Amino acid sequence: MYLENNPDYMTIWQLAHKWINADPDETDTKTISPKLREHIIRLVIAVRSRVITARTRHGVIFENYSFFTVLGDIPHYHKTLRCLIGGVFDKSYLDSIYVKRHEVIDFCINCYYDVPPCWMPKQLNYESITTRENNKYRPDDETADRVRCQAIASVLWELDSDIHPIHLVRSKILQRFGNGRMYREDTLKRWIAEVDPKKGQRKSGRPDIIEYKIVLEIDTQNQN
Question: Which segments of the chain does DSSP mark as H helices, in order?
Fold first, then answer.
């Protein structure tokens, strides 16, 4: 199989561990470290939003939004949802989803993430990229952060279209993984409005108090 022992491919489980220089064979799935959790979720969001192509030994998953593709991907939607919302890190599943080197590198550069050391190209300035992330570098056109926030919003609205934009904007997952803490709420609401499935249908003013289909944690560190 071309995916196995191929230096250009690695599973989500393997790559997330190598990103933090950890051993993928020694991790207890019940005690995932915060840093490892962050990298796993980052990769899962990227493959679900089709920013990075995901592959199994049987072929590409999340390839497009056609009826038959979505139908065939239902098990993957379910398992990635358990990871993102339920905090269930299924080692056997995550170790069966492969991502490609150049796509991950492009993703990291475009989103100003630290590139995994195991896949760091010699021609890139590793120190410069690390400094950007540590200093919460903000790109001039903000394109990378906007794309990330919209991708996260699309995934959450796919799970529950009733989630109010203000709750989504203040959620921990968008504030942390979408880099939302760097922007004003009005900016984030404007970005995600472009992918809102109920745009123009929501009531103005304070959102109703309803129970969503998923647990949406609010980011207590949000200083906007």
Answer: 12-19, 34-48, 67-72, 74-84, 91-94, 101-111, 126-134, 143-159, 165-169, 172-177, 185-193
157-160: which pairs have CB atoms within 8 A and are 24 or more residues apart? 157/195, 157/196, 157/197, 159/81, 159/85, 159/213, 159/214, 160/212, 160/213, 160/214
Q: What is the DSSP letter of 212?
A: -
Mean residue pLDDT of the chain comes to: 82
DSSP reduced 3-state for 55: strand
Only one residue has tokens 């919460």, namely: 136
Q: What is the mean pLDDT of residues 157-176?
A: 88
Contact 94, 13 (CB under 8 A): yes
Contacts of 216 (CB under 8 A, 6+ apart): 156, 163, 167, 168, 171, 173
Q: What 3-state class would DSSP assign to 199? A: coil
Q: Indicate the SS3 state at residue 125.
A: coil
Q: Which residue has the higher pLDDT, 221 or 62?
A: 62
Question: How many Å apart are CA 94 and CA 36, to the nearest integer?
Answer: 13
Q: How far apart are CA 147 and CA 178, in angstroms?
A: 9
Q: 9 phi and psi, to 5 degrees?
A: -130, 145
